[in-house]
Write a structure and sequence with these properties.
This protein is an alpha/beta fold and 301 residues long. The chain folds into two domains: 156 residues, D-Maltodextrin-Binding Protein, domain 2; 87 residues, Periplasmic binding protein-like II (D-Maltodextrin-Binding Protein, domain 2). The chain has twelve helices and 15 strands. Helix 4 packs across helix 11 and helix 4 packs antiparallel against helix 12. The N terminus is likely disordered. InterPro entries: Bact_solute-bind_prot3, Solute-binding_3/MltF_N. This is Glutamate ABC transporter substrate-binding protein.
Length: 301
């Protein structure tokens, strides 16, 4: 897979060769995840918020609970005690705008199938976890953002030339793996028979299933697959044929409009002051040579 270019919907192009060069040839998780070389986050001082808002409550408590993925290189990967990746850096930026330092964040694992549940049961204050905004989810939680737009794709073994896109799955009889509760798991049902869809709770198990031949393809957003490909030591490749648009949002309690508006304002400030770009370049930017622009926010409701 060295030298193959990844085409993302945001216009981001990535190469494994670039990734290996940036990481000294090792592809270490700490470097790819945004660990020791993560950008410094400016923590606001003496911030004040309207009484009764979520921002005031969190600022006075001087702590926040944030759900993210623990198994996704480049976006949310737990290395040691702390997750690393672009989602993690975005969460740190928003927290810092409330005067909350990174070390005051309680990180909660947020697999795809539990994200609405942990928001609604008040186990987290927000979720930043490659969380696609869609109408079904908006019936249960509210979203700020989006802060990034990805697209669904397929990952296969490097010597697989039969699977060229979703339309080729049924004709090849391929078994496809995705994650329970995810948007990609629902979307891929258009292209495969139910008996050929294998679901796990995390994408790392899908990678294992592909490696052992239990499935012939893994599907989720291209940037997630990009991280899995990078960690496969050349065993996997991206089909590079994105077939959806996936706007990543920040999940919060349903109807918390003021918190949503604050998060959107924080993202816009991060885009303007360069901290959004630095967050990308220290994480997913390790394997992508173009920094995305912050998407236009959706209305808060």
């Amino acid at each position: 897979m060295r030298g193959k270019r990844f085409r993302l919907l945001t216009g981001v192009t990535a190469t494994l060769a670039l990734a290996l060069t940036a990481c000294g040839g090792g592809g270490g998780q700490d470097q790819l995840g945004g660990g020791s070389d993560a950008p410094e986050v400016k923590v606001e001082e003496n911030v004040q918020f309207e009484p009764g808002t979520t921002m005031e409550r969190l600022q006075q408590a001087d702590k926040i609970r944030i759900g993210t993925k623990f198994d996704q290189p480049l976006f949310g990967l737990k290395v040691g005690d702390t997750p690393q990746g672009f989602d993690v850096e975005i969460a740190k930026i928003i927290s810092a705008k409330m005067g909350i330092a990174p070390e005051k964040i309680e990180w909660v694992e947020a697999p795809s199938k539990t994200r609405e549940e942990i928001i609604r049961s008040d186990r987290v204050d927000m979720v930043v976890a490659t969380y696609t905004i869609n109408d079904e989810r908006k019936e249960r939680v509210s979203f700020a953002g989006p802060y990034y737009q990805a697209g669904q794709d397929l990952m296969v073994k490097s010597d697989n030339n039969e699977i060229t896109g979703p339309e080729s799955l049924r004709e090849t009889g391929a078994k496809v793996c995705s994650v329970t509760g995810s948007t990609p798991a629902e979307e891929i049902k258009k292209y495969v028979d139910p008996a050929n869809l294998v679901l796990f709770d995390v994408y790392s198990k899908c990678g294992d299933a592909l490696r052992t031949g239990q499935v012939q393809a893994v599907t989720t957003d291209n940037v997630i697959l990009m991280g899995l490909v990078n960690d496969s030591d050349g065993e996997f490749k991206l089909v590079d044929n994105a077939f959806t648009e996936e706007p990543y949002g920040i999940g919060i309690k349903k109807g918390d409009v003021k918190f949503c508006e604050f998060i959107n304002q924080s993202l816009q400030q991060a885009s303007e002051d360069g901290s959004y770009a630095k967050a990308w370049e220290a994480t997913a930017g390790k394997v992508a040579n173009e920094t995305p622009k912050l998407p236009q926010p959706q209305p808060c409701s």
